[in-house]
Sequence to fold (399 residues):
Amino acid sequence: MIIQPRTRGFICLTAHPEGTAEHIKQQIDYVKSKGKIANGPKKVLVIGASTGFGIASRITAAFGSDAATIGVFFEKPASEGKLGTAGWYNSAAFENEAHAAGLYAKSINGDAFSDEIKKQTIELIKKDLGQVDLVVYSLASPRRTHPKTGVQYASVLKPIEQPFTDKTVDFHTGVVSDITINPVENQEDIDNTVAVMGGEDWKFWIEDLKAAGVLAEGVKTVAYSYIGPELTYPIYRNGTIGRAKDDLEATVPALNELLSDVHGVSYVSVNKALVTQSSSAIPVVPLYISLLYKVMKEKGIHEGTIEQMQRLFAERLYTGSAPALDEKGRIRVDDLEMRDDVQQEVVELWKQTTTENLESISDIKGYRDDFFNLFGFNFDQIDYEKDTNEVVPVPSIEN
Fold:
């Protein structure tokens, strides 16, 4: 097939297997360029392992400290005449690169919220690894079926109490406009969002893994969060998603107690604003990120997803001592984004931004490139006019 990008809103409907493989290779090359992470993890489970921070965590563990990795994700496989999802192709490329490097890597494709996938994962750990010493929780899903009750929950992306009006951008066209988002109408929408994106499933995973005896002495587990600047607070941190992130962060003490007898520890890492499939869906955020990229690149402190995860592992999680935490007990690798000088410049640019000056005062091109890179497009090394084989298997998964 000749595969070109086709988009609908903030979603890319196609993915390029050779392009995604190039994206994975570039991330691997970066991690290798930073050298080995001393005392890094050796047997790692990544839940939500196919895109964004999840795949970057898996790459960092494998190629930064030679870890054996198991990845859990829910992606659409490729078949003849039908493209797989970007996450499917990412996982295929990762496994191929890991196996070529002599590293153990296996994957499980299914609903990570379900008891069935938890059980399947535990069986694989027991069979192949015995125990894991790091569990990364990086699930991003708009829906969840509760494994105990069967109730289905859908998250909503809305402010709470007050409507929110501010600038946003259509990053495809570069049109800057005002958008108003009405608040949630009832508590149920908030509760549903917390049920999907909060800490309950992370806790279920750790409870099941511990009960099965597959957590190693001194195990670490980390989940990912975001805070961001005040200008995104109404739609993000003070909105429905923020309530879910509060719940995720509030899970840490319970997990620390649960892990105390194996001397384990849990963390939430607050990461930088980056282009992901999830962040592209949030109004206001693409414009903020394009301005942030401009400022951080000019200051020489920009990081992408893989740079963030490599720094988290090398400079926070595996330094030989406990990482520095903020007043709420969180690891902060958004520290460069939230520097006062960075935020002040972004706020000034925000006030000035219009459709007419967007290209000159922001890094909207960098935003677009990062977005399309997620799906394997906009890589100079790839000839997108050539036929490519869409049927790419994940080696450890039988279709």
About this structure: The longest strand covers residues 215-225. The first helix runs from residue 17 to 33.
